[in-house]
Amino acid sequence: MTTGYIHSVESFSTQDGPGIRYVVFMQGCPLRCKYCHNPDTWQKNKGEQISISTMMEKIKSCQPYFNKQGGVTISGGEPTLQIDFVADLLTACKEEGIHTALDTSGYVKQDEFKKLLPNLDLVLLDLKHLDDKQHQDLTGVSNQKTLDLIKLLESERQPYWIKHVIVPGITDDLDKIKELASYLKSLSYLKKVQLLPYHRLGVHKWEELGLDYQLSETEPPSEEKLEKIKEIIKQQNIKVEIK
Ligand code: SF4
């Protein structure tokens, strides 16, 4: 019996994909994003150990709320760290006719990710920085796997959204945004870009875990800056929203 470790669930989210979403937050993440608001998901074998059947009972009890236009989103942490559990959960959701989405940093091996594709309706891909050096500085890892995953999604004709956190001084440089926009323009199965303003809601968790929060001096971006960034992306005929 496949089991997985989950951090928590949210039964009524409007932030994690189309419509109302039942979100499963998985434990474990190989990245260490400076702005992470869920550092308590980083350890892999913590949280609640749960079977697919118990998880599905929970999901199905909420199905009347999300059934029409929403669905289930598997998030984290980095959910692909528990690839077998995620693959089985996606299969079980599709057997119930539930729309499925996976929120990932893209830090995953391609052959593992391919296991998920048959039962995945939408990928929410967090592209944290297009510049590899700055990506490494922000997250601790290279963006190569994420860029490779975009190529895979394109070749598999898999619809996906790109999420991009706007952090003043790190990801809000307008020249870099122009480079990002022209890269995004070349993608065929990209359905939407979501710009997520940096916030500090998770800082207390860093303190509780005794971790050093390096962005304590960073303020959220201004609405004016966000609108400028949105406009640059929109000019490339890409659907874009600020979340
Ligand atoms: S990928 Fe997500 S969970 Fe992992 S460190 Fe980054 S923001 Fe946190």
TrEMBL record:
<comment type="function">
    <text>Activation of pyruvate formate-lyase under anaerobic conditions by generation of an organic free radical, using S-adenosylmethionine and reduced flavodoxin as cosubstrates to produce 5'-deoxy-adenosine.</text>
</comment>
<dbReference type="GO" id="GO:0051539">
    <property type="term" value="F:4 iron, 4 sulfur cluster binding"/>
</dbReference>
<keyword id="KW-0456">Lyase</keyword>
<keyword id="KW-0560">Oxidoreductase</keyword>
<comment type="similarity">
    <text>Belongs to the organic radical-activating enzymes family.</text>
</comment>
<feature type="domain" description="Radical SAM core">
    <location>
        <begin position="15"/>
        <end position="239"/>
    </location>
</feature>
<dbReference type="GO" id="GO:0005737">
    <property type="term" value="C:cytoplasm"/>
</dbReference>
<dbReference type="Pfam" id="PF04055">
    <property type="entry name" value="Radical_SAM"/>
</dbReference>
<keyword id="KW-0949">S-adenosyl-L-methionine</keyword>
<dbReference type="InterPro" id="IPR012838">
    <property type="entry name" value="PFL1_activating"/>
</dbReference>
<keyword id="KW-0670">Pyruvate</keyword>
<dbReference type="InterPro" id="IPR001989">
    <property type="entry name" value="Radical_activat_CS"/>
</dbReference>
<keyword id="KW-0004">4Fe-4S</keyword>
<dbReference type="InterPro" id="IPR013785">
    <property type="entry name" value="Aldolase_TIM"/>
</dbReference>
<dbReference type="GO" id="GO:0043365">
    <property type="term" value="F:[formate-C-acetyltransferase]-activating enzyme activity"/>
</dbReference>
<keyword id="KW-0408">Iron</keyword>
<dbReference type="GO" id="GO:0016829">
    <property type="term" value="F:lyase activity"/>
</dbReference>
<keyword id="KW-0411">Iron-sulfur</keyword>
<keyword id="KW-0963">Cytoplasm</keyword>
<dbReference type="InterPro" id="IPR007197">
    <property type="entry name" value="rSAM"/>
</dbReference>
<dbReference type="GO" id="GO:0046872">
    <property type="term" value="F:metal ion binding"/>
</dbReference>
<dbReference type="InterPro" id="IPR034457">
    <property type="entry name" value="Organic_radical-activating"/>
</dbReference>
<protein>
    <recommendedName>
        <fullName>Pyruvate formate-lyase-activating enzyme</fullName>
        <ecNumber>1.97.1.4</ecNumber>
    </recommendedName>
</protein>
<dbReference type="InterPro" id="IPR058240">
    <property type="entry name" value="rSAM_sf"/>
</dbReference>
<keyword id="KW-0479">Metal-binding</keyword>
